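User: Please look over both lines:
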Amino acid sequence: MKFMTRRIVFYLITAWAAVTINFFIPRLMPGDPVKALIAKNQGKIPTDAMPALYAMFGLDEQKPLLQQYFDYWGTLFRGDLGISFAFFPMPVTEVIGQALPWTVGLVGIATIISFFVGTLIGTGIGWRRGTWADSLLPISTFFSAVPYFWLGLIAIFTFSVTLGWFPSSGSYDRSLIPAWNWEFVSSVLYYGTLPALTIVISSISGWILGMRNMVVTVSSEDYVTVAQAKGLSERRVMFGYAARNAILPQVSSFALSLGFIVGGTLIMEMVFTYQGIGFLLFNAVNAKDYPLMQGCFLVITIAVLAANILADFVYAFLDPRTRQEG
């Protein structure tokens, strides 16, 4: 119980610090988003509406910064993230709600595939260390060392421009109306194949290498030797004894990676012009859209903190030694 209480208090303090930084950083950026909004909608929004816009967006200069800070907390507790500048007059929650499923679907599926495939390959390589299987490590490490934007551009040039197998940008065929039918779903899968493939290729080596090293470490433990001496099959010893204990750090890392799924792969979404939350955040920064920036940062922060809490509790459940007092 003490372990859970300490961790919850720690993450509450972290969440407060993250929200505070989230409030102050956009306001320290140069530029005036209200003036930019009026210039963008020239003729549609009169200039005498500026005071009302400042108040509506929580940028009322007549209020002290501390008062704006407390007002910001009040709107958060009401679930109101404000109105987006770039997508005026849409609420920020609605804008993020439209982009979030695309990122979670694409990056989430790619991360899960990368984790399971990488862990399985790492288990086999670690169990058969010193064989030809070790030659796969330099190959996977090479692709992970390549900058992601460069890997994405190579994939676009090879599979989109040269071979014409996949589209180079977008998330679905714009001639289709989004709906739960096979035509639209197949279009989403078709457009998402190339971005997902680049995510898997660039991230799988970390899972392979981590699992391989842990399997090599635990394969010399006494319980593995005893299992082999009992005459158990090699497959059962490898998965039931070696891999079962070696996977503990992998589970912790996987839980953390789930938190970063919400943030998306910003570079991937920029390279492929994919309409996820990472690309949305990039556009919000360019447009000086304070409410949208704060909303994106807040969602990403909450997701990462929730993933950290999940990782702590899962690891404590799998390995009771981590929650015992020293």
